[in-house]
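Example for tutorial group B:
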């Protein structure tokens, strides 16, 4: 490994850094970390890495093979945005200490392999990614599930259900109605300053921000958009984004969640993912003569996304709760079609700008509970499979509201899975495209299927509170 990078030393000196926080991502997509005194950077870490117990990390090693090593990626170093003590935050790559090779189940390594595979195909040299993460900021959350009781309770000062609440003479109204939370100014939007604090911390952490705003749902739904970039770098930023959102909310006595469907009867939170291919600095997605100015390459890429959508969603919409969002009527498209401008299509072609370099695809089914390294890699591999095999979408572009199709029209259109179980079954049947170039390994697929299937009975075997409403008096 390389000697101590100079930029690390510069940051330590500039910010009077006392400790270094080493972060890495587990298989489901959550950051894990531990912290060392700054002096430990000079004790062989650059050459030998630093060890940890891989058997204690979700989706990683068995206990008999638990020793793993972390190696610092100096290019990711930044002042930690959540710590009061001056702390250097740096992302790490995972290695096997026996083989000295990158760890096959390290999601960041999988994403790096996806980028390498793209170049090896000769189709393109760069893919760009622009995810739009939505989330809720609540004022209170309580939940419990036991043998004899189960409940959750969410509260928000912005929740429309509190319009009649006695707040000691301080209920001033201005609570967004269901589906009317998109773009109102304060005082209806009560979290303007909170989101601005979030974006300023993101900017300080190196995330280039485009905008922040209230989202459609009541009760503090939000979206912050950052500028597109390459696959691994964008996935790195997604995790820093979530880290900042959660910690800023907590600092203000609130709680942020990226759960796709925490509220019944209003919009859920998605992660619409914009993606494009470039070669030699030129977009491969644009053709002035094509539908919506898209090229054959772009259309085939869409064909690959649509063909493999069910398998992709086992990774990109990876929770049982994800499929409570993927239902008609809540701006989460379920019909596997493509269209220009149409937000009810699962593949949308944005038409804001005429520039060829702005031509891209927006895949609207993923949600922000996914592991971005795995989800972006899966989407890229599906799109490339479409380009390599010239896969045409099953249906022509659909420029009408897919929620208002006739029964006959609906029967001709495939839909996304209706449950995590269905998506996992699709991934088990259809994952050869992910194995190309060794990007995903069979072991990774098998581990993912086993891990996620273990969640299914935990939900299906528990009585649902609403079942008591429906059946208790039967």
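The residue assignment follows.
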């Amino acid at each position: 490994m390389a000697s101590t990078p100079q930029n690390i030393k510069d940051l330590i000196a500039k910010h009077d850094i006392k400790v270094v926080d080493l972060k890495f991502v587990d298989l489901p997509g959550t950051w894990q970390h531990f912290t060392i005194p700054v002096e430990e950077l000079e004790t062989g870490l650059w050459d030998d890495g630093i060890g940890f117990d891989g058997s204690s990390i979700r989706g990683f090693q068995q206990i008999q093979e638990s020793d793993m090593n972390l190696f610092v990626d100096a290019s990711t170093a930044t002042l930690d945005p959540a710590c009061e003590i001056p702390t250097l935050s740096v992302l790490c790559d995972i290695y096997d200490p026996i083989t000295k090779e990158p760890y096959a189940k390290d999601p960041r390594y999988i994403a790096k392999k996806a980028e390498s595979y793209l170049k090896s195909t000769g189709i393109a040299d760069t893919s760009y990614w622009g995810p739009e993460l939505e989330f809720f900021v609540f004022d209170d959350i309580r939940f419990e599930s036991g043998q004899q009781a189960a409940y959750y309770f969410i509260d928000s000062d912005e929740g429309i259900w509190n319009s009649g609440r006695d707040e000691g003479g301080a209920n001033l109204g201005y609570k967004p109605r269901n589906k009317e939370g998109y773009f109102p100014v304060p005082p209806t939007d009560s979290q303007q300053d909170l989101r601005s604090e979030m974006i300023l911390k993101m900017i300080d952490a190196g995330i280039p921000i485009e905008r922040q705003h209230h989202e459609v749902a009541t009760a503090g739904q939000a979206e912050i958009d950052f500028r597109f970039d390459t696959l691994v770098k964008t996935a790195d930023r997604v995790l820093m984004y979530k880290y900042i959102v959660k910690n800023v909310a907590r600092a203000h006595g609130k709680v942020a969640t990226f759960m796709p469907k925490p509220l019944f009867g209003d919009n859920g939170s998605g992660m619409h993912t914009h993606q494009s291919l470039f070669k030699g600095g030129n977009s491969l997605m644009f053709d002035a003569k094509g539908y919506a100015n898209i090229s054959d390459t772009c259309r085939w890429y869409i064909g690959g996304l649509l063909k493999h959508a069910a398998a992709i969603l086992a990774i990109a919409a990876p929770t049982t709760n994800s499929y409570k969002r993927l239902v008609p009527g809540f701006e989460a498209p379920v019909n596997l079609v493509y269209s220009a401008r149409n937000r009810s299509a699962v593949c949308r072609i944005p038409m804001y700008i005429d520039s060829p370099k702005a031509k891209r695809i927006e895949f609207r089914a993923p949600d922000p509970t996914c592991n971005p390294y795995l989800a972006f890699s899966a989407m890229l591999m599906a799109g490339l499979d479409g380009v390599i095999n010239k896969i045409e979408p099953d249906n022509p572009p659909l420029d009408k509201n897919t929620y208002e199709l006739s029964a006959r029209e609906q029967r001709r259109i495939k839909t996304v899975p209706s449950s995590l179980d269905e998506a996992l079954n699709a991934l088990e049947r259809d994952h050869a495209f992910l194995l190309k170039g060794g990007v995903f390994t069979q072991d990774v697929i098998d581990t993912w299927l086993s891990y996620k299937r273990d969640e299914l009975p935990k939900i299906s075997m528990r009585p649902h509170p609403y079942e008591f409403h429906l059946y208790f008096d039967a």
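The radius of gyration is 23 Å. Compare this with the pattern of hydrophobic and polar residues in the output above.
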